[in-house]
Amino acid sequence: MTTLTGKHVAGLFVGGFSIIIGVNIALAVNAVRTFPGLETANSYVASQEFDAKRIAQEALGWTVAADYDGERLSLDITGPDGRPAPVRDLVTHLGRPTEERDDRPLSVASGGSVPMQLEPGLWRLDVAAAAPDGTAYEKRVILRVAP
């Protein structure tokens, strides 16, 4: 039987902390690598404009609905009367909420659909458009794709 000496304890101590530090470094590198970046360059200026934009957007009364049936992604933007909204300058972007790897611009019109294959999990559809009077409209729709 080997006796436990100070060298053994020091080796266990250094080995244990090396594992902990190594795991922490790996997690930190992965977190930084998958972070998509800042949402806005200057948060103070964005906060000053937020309420005015929100009020103007809510006054439009538009509703965005997106659906994925396993083969096609469809998008509908309707006005307060339930009919298609008078959308112009529609831009859509599809990606994951937590990483950029699967992000892609998407070309789909309101009331239309586009064929695609989505992996299971959460997806975020960003919709940006304008009303005929120039009022900006932005909406994020979360899609859940079942395995």
At a glance:
The protein is of the alpha+beta class.
As for the CATH topology, it is Immunoglobulin-like
Strand portion, in percent? Answer: 25-35%
N-to-C series of helices and strands: HHEEEEEEE
| Overall form | elongated
Task: Let me know the number of strands.
Answer: 7
On the 0-100 scale, what is the average pLDDT?
88
Q: What's the CATH first level?
A: Mainly Beta
CATH homology-level superfamily: Immunoglobulins
Q: Give the N-to-C terminal Cα separation.
A: 54 Å
Q: What's the gyration radius in Å?
A: 24 Å
What's the total helix number?
A: 2
* Domain module tally: 1
Low-confidence stretches: none
Could you estimate the helical fraction of the residues in percent? 25-40%
CATH level-two architecture: Sandwich
- Spatial order of the strands forming the largest sheet: 4-3-6-7
Structure description:
- It is a single chain.
- With 147 residues, the chain is α+β, with helices and mostly antiparallel strands.
- The protein has a single domain (43-145), classed as Immunoglobulins (Immunoglobulin-like), CATH 2.60.40.10.
- The protein has helices spanning 6-34, 43-60, and strands at residues 63-68, 72-78, 88-95, 104-106, 112-115, 121-130, 136-145.
- The strands form two sheets. A four-stranded antiparallel beta sheet has the order 4-3-6-7. A three-stranded antiparallel beta sheet has the order 1-2-5, with no helix packed on it.
- The model has no long low-confidence stretch (mean pLDDT 88).
